[in-house]
């Protein structure tokens, strides 16, 4: 049974200058016939299905409709057309640090957030210490939330949402939270959660992260579905090439072509790099600075033919 | 409902903490404020109406008590959706929770003021009677009515940001139409009947009938009180249901 199933999901947004207007302004504009509401489709006919344990990576440029799709999965928005079947509890990590209350303390915010994610008080009592420890906020528990740095806020949000066992985990650009050390820790935690058989959706601008964590790919562009596939490498290659050339693939051949181009480009770049290295070495040798030349040669050997050095030592 | 009990408790405690955290007097002020208002009003209007109406202070207090609760509950309720837009646009929670939690704060204030009210009733030499228990009925109606108005206002406030100014004007008008400080006996009969179109006045009048007139309102009057409450909450609920997923576009 599919855990998440999207059948031809289309989501329409309304935009226009109706936001933040008052009733008076609305009436005046209506009378003048100037009231305009524009519609635009953030997602057009998106179809995919995820089984238990799947990790879907959604890729696409800004404005591709990724976040809107996530909102439909988490139930904040309903599809205008099509439908979304969800079997299980959803923990959404959408733009983590918002929705906290600056006036409340860290402890109070933790409980409030837990309540909003649908956990019980008993559960929060059990997990609270663990959450604070993971977020490294032990000394800040009674501080008003607004005194925390933005990194700390994100850390707390991440910890609350992760130290629970949802059936479905939605991650929107959240793995780049906190400083290097915390990022490493959160990455490991993520892998641990994924290994436990959770179904996940990841939105990330880091393609290497998508390659590493996901086994399925959904590629969106301006709301349209370019592809839904389990050929992660092929599609990630094609996407990275697309980011360079902005040529949108229309069929499978295009995708393969893009992936090939990408491989060629990588090869070329590697070659280019080697060339520059060799050139550098040649310049050094020509300038007859022996010390530097020897050092550079050794470095190159170490990288390219380490066995030669070992032989020489022996 | 049970699923959201923890959330509800947390929201109530949050609203409570935020409301009182920064004030020295804290909850005391929310009781003191209507009392001071009562003092001023009885000094000013007592000159004109006190000899028509025995126990004028209690008469005034009935009006103030009900009206302040109505005003407090709806004015804070109006902002409940917008104040929580950061949460609503990120997490899927029932939106009426935010309104209900604001209403609880207002209800607690009302409860405290009600205690002071009974103290005043005793001081003013009105004998307590089992009849007073009937007051639970208009209070229950008022709670439901306020939730209904809060639902409508909070939804409107999402769509139109100047509703709060317009509502201030409306509240003032409603205040004058609720016979809070004046007596209605001098008006012709049709005006007295017309006043019953104002739900807040109905609830105030119920209080006065029980406490001052020593009487129990008729059955139709009970039904009228209930009617306003039910209609209001149905309208509000309908608006919420219809716009549940539309609010997001406006936040």
UniProtKB/TrEMBL annotation, chain A:
Domain (ABC transporter) ranges: 23-247
Pfam families from the UniProt entry: ABC_tran (PF00005)
Membrane-crossing segments per the record: none
InterPro entries membership: AAA+_ATPase, ABC_transporter-like_ATP-bd, ABC_transpr_TagH-like, Bact_Polysacc_Export_ATP-bd, P-loop_NTPase
A single GO molecular function term of this UniProt record: ATP binding
Keywords from the named record: ATP-binding, Nucleotide-binding, Transport
Keyword NADP: no
Protein family membership: Belongs to the ABC transporter superfamily.
Protein name: ABC transporter ATP-binding protein
Lineage summary: Bacteria, Bacillati, Bacillota, Clostridia, Eubacteriales
